Fold each of these.
Amino acid sequence: MIGMASVAAREWQRVPDEDGKLIEAARGGDMSAADELLARHELVVHRTCRHLLPHDEDIEGAVQEALLRALKGLSRFTGEGSFAGWLATIAVNLCRDRLRRRRLVPLVPLENDADGERGGPLGVLPAGDPDPERAAMARQAVLRVRREVAELPERQREVFTLRFFVGMELDAIAEALGLDVGTVKTHLHRAVRRVRLAAEEAMP
Amino acid sequence: MNEKHLNEDELDLVLCGEGLPPDRALHLVGCHACERRRNDFLAVLEEARIDDPAAAVVATARDGALQRWGAGVGRQHRVRWWLAAAAVLLLTLLPILRHGSSPTTRRQEQQVFNPDQVLTEVDAMLSQDPLTAMTSEAVVDTVVPVGNVSWQGGA
């Protein structure tokens, strides 16, 4: 399946033994253990912040703040869920805090930055298909998807982001957002329907 | 194969990672149109996803968090050490502050001052006439005539 494998399937199992040992050591103030623990799971925080915060927000500062909150709150991590899911909870809460402080509807970056990083949405095209019309439609579809995701209601946007951009499983999302799995599915269905229709409109 | 294409709800179910009934799942496997519709959307999502930051950016954020946390942990340890030291000092000084001397001195005083022995000596002294014990009987009779001495010792 294109995309899904690289986007979704990642480590969301319960706390492995090694994580547990690192967490215990970090709780005791062991810096190297804390370093390794963060290195294993920090991308969850980066992805969450990069997708939920507007591009003009201090993303790296937010990530650092989220990681610091995690380190300070290690004693509160019960180990019942995945450590990555717990980090996602912290990152989502931090993003909500920042968005409320700004009192803005968050806007995901459109033409300015993300395309520059990735070289544009031409990758949608199959290799060896330089059809400029199809390339333009693909670009439009990507822009429409970003805009549509940015305009989703808060919960739907969080669920959609954690599922497709961070790569979390439904039960991990439910745990991270404090929802039951059924509610997560409902939010996700509504979000997928809206975003998919927007994409199909742009790229029929 | 069931020739009917996936409807909107079924397509969304697939995209959300949920299962389809077996006959519909079988259709998806064999239907190029449905498969392409699903894959096109996932491809657009993959393109819409913002890339992970460079390794240096990731490391900088982590190091910053660790440094701030480490400073806090060090401060906490120092504060705990000082509190422990203060507690020990207080426990040591508290008896002295309350009684004005060290416990060792008080124990020595208790050993020197034997109340039973003192009471015995006082009883022995009182059983005698205290004045005659101190000076000659003639002097006592002169200073305090026998008729004026009460049992309380007053003149």
Amino acid sequence: MKVLEGLRAIEPGTIVPVGELGLPVAGTKGLLLVFWKST
Amino acid sequence: METEESCRAWREEFRLDFPVIPDAEGDLFRAFTNGWVPWSVLIGPDGRVVFSENEFDEEGFSAAIRQLYQEPTATKPAIRPRVQSAGRTVILGGGTGGLVAARELQRRAPAGHRVVLVDRSADHVYQPSLLWQMVGQRRPEQFRRPLHRLERKGIKFHQADVEELDLDSQIVRTTAGDLEYDSLVVSLGAQLAPESVPGFDQIAYNLYTSEGCAQIHSALEALREGAIGILITSMPFKCPAAPYEAAFLAESFVRQAGIRRNVEIHLFTPEHTPMPVAPAALGESIADMLAARGINYHPLFTFSELRPETKEVVASDGRTHKVDLLIGVPPHQAPEVVRASPLLGVSGFVHSDARTLQTNRPGVFAIGDVATVRLPSDKALPKAGVFAHAEAKAVAAQIADELEGKTSGASFDGKGYCWVELGDGRASWAGGDFYADPEPRLKMRRPGRPLHWGKIAFEQWWLRHWL
């Protein structure tokens, strides 16, 4: 996985380069990212 | 952030078969969130972010998933940036206006709408009680309430300093992260600027802070003789009656302490009459009550300087008075973050529409002491909690109506009132229509004990009801 420098993608409607980021979205209906902390 | 090992262990424990991406350096977290957890992001197969919210908004999230499944990827239209009912209102300031706006909006808004209140302090302070603290009738803990209690009502409390209002991007930047908003309510109050008066911190006690009122109480207890001064350094100041109430309460205090004959009391103000927005008869009535109590009233006293070495208060026309205990009303100004924003009007505060409280930016409202509202007489509506309260209700109703797709008829009617503490367990009361043309139509009630009890009952109700 590669993170692009300076990427800000909070606003709905933003298009993120999923291929470059290596996010496993190909062949799916979409991807859910949940950020959480276990403690 | 979680390590790769902890992610793997978690996956195994719950037998999860979907990919779990460790973000040990927090790069994704910074790219996709405002710094809060939990945060959910839904990305379409074309890389479009279709949902991004702190915590979990079931309604908005379900709608976004349904859209992803219903629409073929190739022809999928851009999903609108914000689902209205799942939008967010950010309220800046946890004073009277902010609290009422938050509670009212949470009560009225459609399910899923987020209400976030931002304040630098952990506590709300009910400011009318400061006058009673000044004469030892209240302790600070009796009129403070923790703002985190709002969370019980479903309101997010974000404790932080507001650093910037990025109105073009609809983002409030705070010391604890950025907050996007659909509607913004600015209720940051007026910032006190005692530091702009040289010598204030040496000889004056600030009437508008709990610390200042504690100092005034100690100084009154220690006083045996001399002159008490109540000084209004500049206009505007909040709660037009407060300095007069301070004079009445101080007079009552020294009389009950048995030292009244040894103490002079002076009230210095740039106003030509007490509460000049009100009809002349009301100001004359207050002036008569000052005279009846032997309080020396100095109208049109345009403050020039303090002389700490001689404990003197000086007016621009040269009038000079020596005081032994000085109760000060410091200059008021809009908070720095507002002064640095395009919201600032020529009055030095934010100009709000008299009925809707809308500012010069759509979806941005300013209420309470941070706002300047023009009356038909072209004077400004006084800065007072009662107006912040009513303005907040009008704004919350407008936002809620808009969220439901209704044309809102909600507006602020300009009605207001206040109690005037007179000491000795007595109070007066004045109220009416401040939007009456050509000047406010107000009535004053005969002073008495029931009005004092009414003021206490209102304090108790307010603190119980709103926090």
